[in-house]
Amino acid sequence: MSSKESNPYENAMKQLESTASLIKLDPAAHEMLKSPKRILSVSLPIKMDDGHVKNFQGYRVQFNDARGPFKGGIRYHPNVTLDEVKALATWMTWKCSVVDIPYGGAKGGVICDPKNMSTAEKERLTRRYTAMIADFIGPYRDVPAPDVYTDSQTMSWILDTYSQLKGYQVPECVTGKPIALGGSEGRNNSTARGCIICAREAAKQLRLPLKGATAAVQGYGNAGSWSAVFLQELGVKVVAASDSSGAIYSKSGLDSAKTLNHKEQTGSVVGLEGSEQIEPEKLLELDVDILVPAALENSITAHNAGNVKAKIISEAANGPTTPEADAILEKNKVLIVPDILANAGGVTVSYLEWVQNLNREHWTEDQVNERLEQKMVAAFNASYEMSKKLNVTMRSGALALSIKRVADAIQLLGIWP
Ligand code: GLU
Description:
Rossmann fold; alpha/beta; binds glutamic acid
């Protein structure tokens, strides 16, 4: 991360600063929100399959818990940095607040390259990481979940390690679990479902008919690939998709099932029959109606924002647009559904999973999706209305709404001692 623009924590703090002046944030709450409540930095010695021991670095950042237990995923990626985890923990706090679920925000990260690790190595890493943070997590303390390159299997190892340390089974200590271990129906594709609900509501506001509209999806992991499925269900033609190996384009549209199948068979979307390869940067600048950035932070920057032609951006990823790019897109009247809202479907169904676990219940997929739909539409409308009321972008509206809720909770709790 070289340029200033690409430090995600600086970007998160810039957002806090501008929101603070916009809503005249209480100075004491503002002061408390300038840094995370707790940062855990852990060293993780792992016996690799060839017998040698390798030390990995891991973090868990607990940003704020005024509204409820800390909540947020764990990311495995070679480029994880403490500043990135701090930013993601900040955004989790706003995210849980904007959809009005009773959680604070946290995030975990381990610097590792999961693509080049065996399943056994990943299991040992996950169990050691869990053991190192076990005293600071738990169903009423901090509830982890999947994020980039972690999945329901990772959550199963966390559940087992935590439960063994406690001496009894604690399914509600983690979300994003497999169904067989108390996971929720619908959790697997909930981030994308929420993201496309937001794109649909945004299209309504712009009076843009979705049948025959076009879209590009950057990133084809869980959020990206399911976003393509839901866009297609709405009659939108997904003309471009990408992953870390490259990008593809088809004027007549990429079939979401075939694209995912190709990625599962070959490891990438590149080479899909009937598609042509394009430069990954070009994907963001295509003449499409909807753009779904579903990769990592800092995809849309001051360098390329001026070339974005999409009318709607629904941010499935966390932090894909820098504040500098935001200003350009605002001038160009692009409607951005911000990450803290557009990708909140994942944590919303995590919350529904936790509620089911605490009550020892299991709901049907329809029950889960119905609640998700209600939460997302309500949060979209509240953020949209706030942006109109304050005459600001939807990102600023959503931040205003969510930061105000967190600040209100902080004020009511007071400072002790
Ligand atoms: N990692 C996801 C996110 O960034 C989900 C978090 C969760 O379910 O707790 O929102």
